[in-house]
Amino acid sequence: MRYEEQIKNYFDAHWFEMMRDISRICAINSEKMPEKEGMPFGEGPYQALMEFGEMAKEKGFSYDTYGNAVGAVNLNDGERQLDILAHLDVVPAGDGWQVTEPFNVIMKDGRIYGRGTADDKGPAVVALWALKAIRDLQIPVTKNARLVVGTDEECGSGDLPYYYAKEAEAPMTFSPDAEYPVINVEKGAFRPVFRASWEKEAGLPRLVSMKGSLKFNVLPGKAFAVIETKDSLCSLDEMKAIAGKVTEKIGVQFEIAEEGSAVEAVAGSALDAAADASAKAGSAADASALRFSITAIGETSHAASPSKGNNALTGLIEFLCALPLDESLVSTAKLHALKKLFPHGDYAGKAIGAAMEDEVSGPLTLTFSMMDWNETGFWGQFDCRASVCATQENLHDVVRDNLLAEGIEMDPTELEPPHHVPGDSAFVKELLAVYEAYTGRKGECLAIGGGTYVHHLKNGVAFGCSMPGTENRMHGPDEFAVIDELIVSAKMFTQIIADLCQ
Ligand SMILES: [Zn+2]
Questions:
Q1: If you ran DSSP here, which 8-state letter would residue 293 be given?
Q2: How far is the CA of 46 from the centre of ligand 1 (A)?
Q3: How large is the C-alpha radius of gyration of the chain?
Q4: What values do phi and psi take at 175, rounded to 5?
Q5: How far is the CA of 419 from the centre of ligand 1 (A)?
Q6: Cβ atoms within 10 A of the Cβ of 326, count?
């Protein structure tokens, strides 16, 4: 490739300065903080935005800001060709750091450790150095490459509107905020809330309350329920025997305890005050009735990759449906309807009629995550990552009708469209060619469940900065980036700018 030797030599000589810049920007805690005047995402993100600007100016670039939410560094005044979109905010440091303190960056064993080194301040600095390399090496470019740095990627990308309200999308955009090679397909999102209600019932045994995950995009590793029964109808021993059989079948474990006993304190803490209050009212109504709390324990995972977990909520429903609940109750019928629509292990959405797949994005996934059940009704929510072929008609309408057939109403919901940049576009081909030339690895396009920084851009893809197989503990303690991966990223970005902006 043209200039390949110069580019390689440049970064082999300057990589340490690049690491120093990464340490400098990662020393700022830029997690989201309360909004202040002129600081839409709080003090930390603002400081990082300003410090990054200082760094750009020291290298001889001008720096534009957009509402103090986004910064931009321009390579030149030419026609805009390429945006590189990175972000300077981080997730909270959290506990468990052992190699170093989260904002005290160190280099050790070929890695650079600290919050933001991988996600995404390290890559932002790498892109800044790519602009500098083009300039220092005097590589001739006529078109502009612009480095755009946001400050709210981790909390919903509220930063991007500040930028895109003033600027049109560049002809090409890549975001070094994921992994190599290229992510060109992100599934759509469909997350309807659905609900049913009924008059308060008295029959026994009866489901009184149920809770799933606290966030729609988290596959529940635990779920909680309270049932009311009598010893003569279903005793604790009988429940435990049924639980054992369900565990054997699906792997979800169950802890069952009479309300007021020790285990109840753990399970009950996740149940809301209303359920507690109604528990007292219920036992006053029928002195011989007993309440049992049930904790289902599966394994949590991200809702976009449900097969990595074991859903405690659908496991709990499976168990509850195996109990001899009073079949004349509306609540019992609704519970069985949920089991029918969301059978345990159905991560493809077959039962609710959502299952589909296509060559570009693979199969749709569906994770039943949220549930809030009380004595007069429930609401629930699932997180579905929809294949590129999903439409209002073949997904939204089918799910709505299948819920309605069970007397469950879906709230008005938009299907958030999938994102797809053709893998054979000149832009994607260039990224893959440079990747292959500089890393010696096979370049290919990847499809993911969604949610990258470029999801809303017509011609945006994710590219870097970690190599396949590198587990950089992004969002966890001891986050790191592999130094060689950052260096080769800087070389690749420089090559790409040289090629695309010539
Ligand atoms: Zn990120």
A1: E
A2: 17
A3: 27
A4: -120, 115
A5: 18
A6: 16
